[in-house]
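In response to reviewer comment 3 from the previous cycle, which asked for concrete evidence that the modeling workflow produces usable outputs, we include below a single protein chain processed end to end. The sequence was submitted unchanged, and the resulting structure tokens are shown without manual editing.
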Amino acid sequence: MSEAVNRRLLVVSNIPTPYRHHFFEVLGQQLRSRGGDLQVLFAARSERGRHWDPPVGGQFYDAGVLPGLTVHPLGTHTHLNRGAVRAAAQYDPRWVLTAGSWHGPTTLTVLARAHRSGIPCLFWSEGHRDAVLHRRGWVPPLRHQAFRRFDGFAVPNDRSGRFALLNARRNVPVLRLPNVVDDDFWAAPRPSKTAARASLGVEDVRTVAIVAALEPRKRVVESIRAYLCLAEDRHARLQLLIAGTGVQEPEATALAADHPHVRLLGQLTQDEVRDLYWAADAFLLASSYDPNPLSMIEAAFAGCILMASRSVGNCDELVEPRTPFVIDDQRGDVVAGIASALATVVDASDERLAHLQQHQKQRVSLGWTSRAVASQFVDDLEHHFPAGTDIQS
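The workflow returned the following structure tokens.
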């Protein structure tokens, strides 16, 4: 095989998304600089409830949508693509990375073909123990059977890595591969907070942003209740700006009705979300279930202090440990924990707040830039699965 063939990576995923398109461009550029290339095969163009319309393929990677159909047993998205194995064989990859559902027929057939050909096949696993929907019954044994067949895992954080190995029940390589954002966009030079707040038409006081769907698992309603628990003098010095829509919007609106410093902004564009981060001192995400939220990474690059519950997948890596900004929702009162984090923000001095924001931005810049993640991932592939290494099924 030529060097280019030895560095061919095939990714099989469910649907195109804007953030993955950005990362595939960066990853493809990294592979191409080393004499390789990237091919992405999608099981479908979109799924129910998704409103994105990103490109399929780009300047530095080739992509295509496999023919097939999508069914929805028990509310899931299950893709059936009969041509997946043929398309994978034609590409002749050195490595295969599958993303999406571990139990999908397309994933399992590509995995079986890779094993027959001695090609390392990894699963991009974003789940972790605190984000498991099915802890009992017939799903865990099936998950174990599927995970033990993969030759390695790509994971966004340590919790996902531990979860993957627990299910695989054998020692295989675990490569770090978080979902990343366009850090050039989110880390662009920001205006003053005063100017950013003026552009949003809000007051120039301490500001906490929430960007989340208004649904139970995101705990936006609990976050509003926590704000209402604060003393009246803090209400005058702190505002809560919430971007998003969802089934709990009427309840959230009712709670905020008599509190002008709690504003529901509705659904925002990407540029408007960045404006919101620029206006904010801190970002809050108190979800009960959130494997790997991108909003935290966006907010950190934009210069916000992060506050999150322990159930949020990126909490350990991104939120300042041993501070009220880590909300213990697994043992304590989540509303009280959120209120404590909010109080810390409103009571901090300007100097303390600026120091925390700078430290947060340095923290995310160290390991979450697209280029650094892509480069390290290719390094790890070559280290753990060098060309000429066959995998025994």
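The chain has 17 helices and 15 strands. We consider this sufficient to address the reviewer's concern, and the full set will be provided in the supplementary archive.
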